[in-house]
Write a structure and sequence with these properties.
The protein is of the alpha/beta class. The protein contains 14 helices and 23 strands.
Length: 486
């Protein structure tokens, strides 16, 4: 079984892994990187693809999949795109939105369209749903999906071929990081663990309780002054987490939610069986939506204008979380001129995005503001309102969470991906120092690296040799010091 890293190596974004044998080739995720211009996986010189497995519906894991059809990269025996039912549903709203943003960027940069609407439609029509813990086969590969605890429908992907079991975490949560989701499941008999490293530099996240306290305090401060609060939010994951907090907070003002957050949150209600056990019990007892009760949807432009331009204090949740699309740029433009208002950033801000610029103190930004005709106008906006950044809402495990998960499965080989170089280096050092993982080989691959896994052990010639030699040298130094001390 051969593994090739087509994306996500020493970077966050464009996650894409190729697994292949002599007879079968599959992709684990096929996402994009939200840079300007967008970066896509290395899709050149691939064997015909027999299937794609999506770990979850975030665009950095699924957004490049239409390129497979645009470039005719799937085999004549293509089995489809496999995902959990919630991931299929969420992809049906997130992929069209991603395509709309791509069209805007291609036009702005004077680029040819990399794929057409028909390729996006073909992607969605090719999705086949698979529930957790159901084993299925694609050629030489036996595959099973497990709970990942990141967003609704997210899964760990366990792939077995020729006696080797590889587990790909995609994006993984941690116990206590989201009350509405179950924690990640340990997968037994894991030989190779491909472990995400997004927060490899963060030993432990602030508690959700503390993050909630800071959020409510920041909102209350603004509401008391008669201002409005905009919370740019991801449609899936972070948005629902914040909604749960706000509906219980008794803020004394109206709370609105807009854009794709409405559709995505409905899917959280539809797929209740994928929520945590306590939340399932709550739904059964109350027969109500556990996210939106008491929070009002915004369904038209008239109401958006009324909310933004009235003198009534309120809280507005709207995608996108980085202020690069959706309705959050509209609300920012409307609220930015009043010092009483506030923007609260609660999620990761990709480099170069509007949210990133605000978090770094820039106070003049270019916004793409949606219009009533559902196109965009570009405007430079001066930010006079307050900007707050509150951490602790992440759906990713921190370094200590990832270490404990690796301990729970005790793999022979750990491959770190989906993290910036410093995050991966730091997490690698943490794992190497853990006595329970002393027998695990820790690898930090580069983009495009290829590994060949043989029967029950990894044949990773160059990197493995370097790692073994490094450990031998360290051992020799320790022996010399002991001898010198005698």
């Amino acid at each position: 079984m051969e593994l090739r890293l087509l994306g996500g190596a020493k970077e966050v974004g464009r996650s894409c892994l190729l697994l292949s044998t002599e007879k079968t080739s599959i992709l684990l995720d096929c996402g994009l990187k939200s840079t300007k211009p967008t970066e896509y996986p290395l899709l050149e010189d691939l064997p015909p693809i027999d299937a794609v497995i999506w770990s979850h519906a975030h665009i950095d894991h699924i957004g490049a999949t239409p390129l497979l059809f645009a470039r005719d990269l799937v085999s004549n025996n293509f089995k489809g795109i496999f995902a959990t039912p919630p991931t299929q549903a969420l992809a049906s709203i997130l992929l069209p939105d991603s395509y709309t943003l791509a069209l805007r960027q291609w036009q702005e940069l004077g680029m040819e369209e990399l794929y057409q609407h028909e390729h996006m439609s073909k992607t969605l029509s090719s999705v086949r749903t698979i529930n957790l813990h159901r084993i299925f086969k694609i050629g030489d590969f036996e595959i099973e999906l497990y709970e990942a605890g990141h967003i609704l429908g997210s899964c760990l992907v366990a792939v077995k071929a020729h006696g080797v079991r590889l587990v790909y975490t995609g994006n993984m949560g941690a116990p206590g990081r989201a009350e509405h989701l179950n924690p990640p499941e340990p997968v037994k008999d894991t030989d190779v663990l491909i472990l995400e490293s997004t927060y490899g530099l963060t030993l432990q996240h602030p508690s959700l309780k503390e993050a909630k306290r800071r959020l409510i305090s920041s909102i209350t401060e603004t509401i008391k002054e008669g201002g409005k609060v905009l919370i740019p939010s991801f449609s899936v994951g972070r948005g629902q987490k914040v909604m749960r907090m706000l509906r219980k907070a008794n803020l004394g003002c109206k709370v609105y939610y807009d854009g794709l957050l409405k559709d995505a949150t409905w899917f959280y209600w539809r797929f209740t069986s994928y929520l945590s056990d306590p939340l399932i019990r709550e739904v059964c007892l109350t027969r109500s939506n556990p996210f939106i009760d008491g929070i009002e949807p915004v369904n038209d432009m008239r109401l958006r204008k009324k909310i933004a331009r009235s003198k009534e204090p309120c809280v507005i949740l709207a995608p996108s979380g980085m202020l690069e699309g959706g309705w959050s740029p509209y609300y920012l433009r409307e609220l930015a001129g009043d010092e009483k208002n506030k923007v609260i950033l609660v999620g990761h801000q990709g480099e170069g995005t509007v949210g990133d610029k605000l978090s770094k103190g820039e106070r003049k930004v270019d916004l793409y503001v949606p219009t009533e005709k559902f196109d965009w106008i570009k405007e430079e906006v001066e930010i006079k309102c307050d900007v707050d950044l509150i951490e602790g809402f992440s759906g990713h495990g921190a370094a200590n969470d990832l270490r404990l998960y690796a301990r729970s499965v005790k793999p022979n080989t750990i491959i770190l991906n989906h993290g910036d170089p410093k995050a991966i280096e730091n997490l690698g050092n943490i794992l190497k120092k853990d006595p329970y993982l002393s027998s695990s080989l820790i690898l930090t691959p580069e983009l495009g690296d290829i590994y060949d896994f043989g029967l029950k052990r990894a044949h990773i010639e160059e990197d493995a040799l370097k790692e073994v030699l490094s450990r031998l040298e360290a051992l020799e130094r320790r022996i010399r010091k002991l001898e010198e001390g005698k």
